[in-house]
Amino acid sequence: MREKILALLENYKLESGGNIVSRDLIRALNVDGAKASFVLEAPSPGVAQNLENERSRIQDQLLQIDGLEEVSIVVTSHSKEPPNLKIGGHPKPQETTMKPQNVSKIIAIASGKGGVGKSTVSSNLAVALANKGKKIGLLDADIYGPSQPRMMGVSQRPSSPDGKRIIPLQAHGVTLMSIGLMVDPSKAVVWRGPMLMGALQQMLSQVEWGELDALIVDLPPGTGDVQLTLCQKAELSGAIIVSTPQDVALLDARKAIDMFKTLKTPIFGMIENMSNFVCPNCSHETPIFGKGGVLVEANELGVPLLGTLPIDLDTRLAGDDGKPAALFDGPAAVAYNKIADGFIASGLV
């Protein structure tokens, strides 16, 4: 149904060129049985007025799709400063769970320390799963060091039609939200714990995530406030621990695993990143950070090894260019697709 809706919307051309889909105007597309809803976010008030004039006709055309009985379309106009939208206040009392509606699972990508490639794994795994037809969201919960906007190639500030709801961005088939999209990228986020928790609450509860098979959460390193809040208040489905084979990284990975076990959060498994380097000139394999350390650790801790990922130049270049390596051919893409296949086969997603 989702594909049929997008195919029909491609027929609506814009005066400035392109169509509703190619210009990335669709936000929060949600299909629930015979009902569909989405937001059309126009780049200017003038375009918004044109879309508003066409809204009824678009709805009528969509209702011609077999099995679709109700369509709701909201037209908004993007502005640099959403009305009265402030990110990072103190968390508000909340009686219900922080888990977004229509999100089947929340999967945390964690590590005991920084620099092991957790964010790279998060973005590439999200893209690999999306390429296999899964509806995937990616939440960059690393408040102090958000990197997903750069890795996913987005920089537009998310809009808010009413100062409360936040419309996430779309990139490479993934629904994306990051604090890095809401603050000046050149400025440091200097917040105490309560403001950090308030921002996390907003990005979970106020974002229009739509219907998702899984929301992948790129966690900050360590075992702090964000991890604790997610485990206790967001119905976290499980966690994946990313580590290099290096002993010093594995020491901290153990602490992350112990934290999740203490909080009774399932550990889906471990991923060994930067497992080996293959010289592009002579094909000689060099285990720069050691080899097999994560497999040994996973066996000792009683959790599965979900996959191993190489260290290569293409992965770094792709991340810096905003086009994750999983989109292309190569050893890294093969490795991420294998992990994604394992997720789907085992029912994790």
Radius of gyration: 21 Å
Low-pLDDT segments: 79-84
Q: What string, H for helix and E for strand, traces the elements in order?
A: HEEHEEHEHEEHEHEHEEEHEHH
Judging from the principal axes of the Cα atoms, what is the shape?
globular
Largest sheet: 8 strands, mixed
Domains, number: 2
What strand line-up does the widest sheet have? 6-7-5-8-4-9-10-13
N- to C-terminal distance: 20 Å
CATH class of the largest domain: Alpha Beta
Helix content: 25-40%
Mean pLDDT: 87
Structural class: alpha/beta
CATH topology of the largest domain: Rossmann fold
**CATH homologous superfamily classification of the largest domain:** P-loop containing nucleotide triphosphate hydrolases
Short descriptors:
349 residues, alpha/beta, GMP Synthetase, Chain A, domain 3, Rossmann fold, three-stranded mixed sheet, 10 helices, 19% strand, globular
Describe the protein.
This protein has 10 helices and 13 strands. By secondary structure, it is of the alpha/beta class. The protein folds into 2 domains: 2-76, GMP Synthetase, Chain A, domain 3 (2-Layer Sandwich); 106-346, P-loop containing nucleotide triphosphate hydrolases (Rossmann fold). The strands form 3 sheets. An 8-stranded mixed β-sheet has the order 6-7-5-8-4-9-10-13, with helices on both faces. A 3-stranded mixed β-sheet has the order 1-2-3, covered by helices on one side. A two-stranded antiparallel sheet has the order 11-12. Helix 7 links the parallel strand 9 and strand 10. The chain starts with a helix and ends with a helix.
